């Protein structure tokens, strides 16, 4: 009986092991067609995490299936032992094995569902960064060069940076699901008072602070790399949301919809001479060009 259940899952086990072996072999024996590394595409780190998360979902589902097979086999063994009036010790052992395998099955199923939920969040974040990247492509006609997914040890991931004669802009992307409005706020609106983002169902300050911290880090990084002071203007972009400013004033962090971003960048006055722009672009190109072909 046990072998019958194991045989049912043998193809899945062999397939996963074959994939892992193939990856190791390719990494050890194959070389990319070009040595030069590529620029990081938008949401690259999220796409890597998404792939790893789906692997975790499959691994947990396979483990849950195996534990389920063992629990059924143990339950059948327990039923047979009860029918044959086997020794009490054997019956107790079969019962404990059934319980243990069942608990293992439930635990791996919960882990699989946990990774699945996390994959949905990662996919949402990836789509948000891709939407902002499309908006930055439109800004290219105004002289802006965009860089994506800057990796730092100090402040973590920086979603986007746009560089041109009109300035250096750090863009923090936040993709948030819409869950319906309230009697005071429409379901597609987010209110911004210069300090926090008020969504219909929750209030958030972290994106604003994160944009400030990341802009300060990028400014220091570019100053160290180019030898010149570089002011970085932080932006928070919310794809799909209508941003309504509830307070007047010149805020340190501007918040906007992704569709509004190209026009906002176009309206900026020139702040940097072309020679410095080239030096900044060279520094960011060096920072972001780390993806193997």
Walk me through what this model shows.
- The protein folds into 2 domains: 2-13 and 36-125; 142-291, no CATH class.
- It is of the alpha/beta class.
- The chain has 6 helices and 11 strands.
- The strands form 3 sheets. Strands 2-3-4-8-10 form a 5-stranded mixed sheet, with helices on both faces.
Please name the defining characteristics of this protein.
293 residues, alpha/beta, 2 domains, 5-stranded mixed beta sheet, 4-stranded mixed beta sheet, 11 strands, 55% helix
Largest sheet: 5 strands, mixed
How much beta, percentage-wise? 15-25%
Roughly what is the average pLDDT, rounded to an integer?
A: 90
Strands in their spatial order, largest beta sheet: 2-3-4-8-10
Number of helices: 6
Provide a short characterization of the protein structure.
The protein has helices at residues 2-29, 44-83, 88-139, 206-226, 261-266, 274-288, and strands at residues 38-39, 145-151, 157-164, 167-173, 189-192, 197-198, 203-204, 232-237, 242-245, 254-256, 289-291.
